[in-house]
Amino acid sequence: MVTKRAKPSRPPQIVPIGDSRDAFTRWLIYSRPGQGKTVLASTSPRCLMLEADRGTASAKRYKSAAEKWVMGDWNDLEEALSYLRNGGCANFDWVWLDSLTLFQERGLDNIMDDLVAEKAHRKVYLPDKGEYGQNMNRIGRRIRELVDLPVNVGITCHEFHFEDPDTGEVTIMPYVQGKGMPQKMCSYVDQVGRMELKTTKEGKEYPVVDFRGSEDFYAKDRLGVGRVVNVTVPKLMAAVSAGAQGTVRASKASSVTKKTTGQEK
Q1: Over 60: is that where the pLDDT of 54 sits?
Q2: Mean pLDDT of the 118-129 span
Q3: How far, in Å, CA of 70 to CA of 80, rounded?
Q4: What crossing angle do the helices spanning 74-85 and 100-118 adopt, rounded to 10°?
Q5: Are 195 and 37 in contact (CB under 8 A)?
Q6: Which residue from 84, 117, 186, 223 lies 20 to 30 Å from 162 (Cα-Cα)?
């Protein structure tokens, strides 16, 4: 006798693409110091800055309404993540870690302080491969937890010039210490953009973020934003919305030049 198999029930984990988790975006913006990353982040509505870079004074000058939580060590970041996971995200539209580059250094300091307190023979300024590895693994896990939050998430980084040892070619990338770490951090987010201050013919500076990438620098444009001039977070989100609706993308709009000022639109 052949036994007829029962029809399997549909697992509740199967949901349509575009559910509530897909409503949030994850961004990584990198540049040389002083190009305006913190100011850009601070233009986010209902924004919480997880501040490791001590750079929010620049945002204050532009009368940002963002709030901040100082990240001095791993304990601060873990406390912030716990708060946000347990309902804190409802109070914010955006959470930014500013910056990952400096927080990674603070994290290693934290590991070394704890190590020397336990093993007095170790030197606080001489981390070994094990301590670097522990810090890298912690960074990876905490950033995954950060981007999993039900809120828009941004991360800022400094940049560095990576030289391929085989070809000698140089690529500008986010500055995250450890082999493969820049690529790994970029894989966790939707958008990776390089930020620069440009100058008009009259000498006025304006910020540009390019998500298109080139042979010279790394970028990622999953949401079709392109290149955005005089960039703010609301302008970035408008570009995302325009791309989703099939209208002209920011990368095309930004190629137009103002004849009167020499500044791109």
Answers
A1: yes
A2: 86
A3: 10
A4: 120
A5: yes
A6: 223
Query: In the numeric block, which tokens belong to residue 31?
Result: 């540049």
Three-state secondary structure readout of the chain: CCCCCCCCCCCCCCCCCCCHHHHCCEEEEEECCCCCHHHHHHCCCCEEEEECCCCHHHHHHCCCCCEEEECCCHHHHHHHHHHHHCCHHHHCCEEEEECHHHHHHHHHHHHHHHHHHHCCCCCCCCCCHHHHHHHHHHHHHHHHHHHCCCCEEEEEEEEEEEECCCCCCEEEEECCCCCCHHHHHHHCCCEEEEEEEEECCCCCEEEEEECCCCCCECCEECCCCCEEECCCHHHHHHHHHHHHCCCCCHHHHCCCECCCCCCEC
**Omega into 9 within 30° of 0, i.e. cis?**
no
pLDDT of 247 strictly over 80: no
Asked which of 15-24, 147-156, 186-195, 201-210 is least confident by mean pLDDT, the reply is 15-24
Structure tokens at 213: 């990438």
What residues pair up with 217 in beta bridges, in sequence order? 172
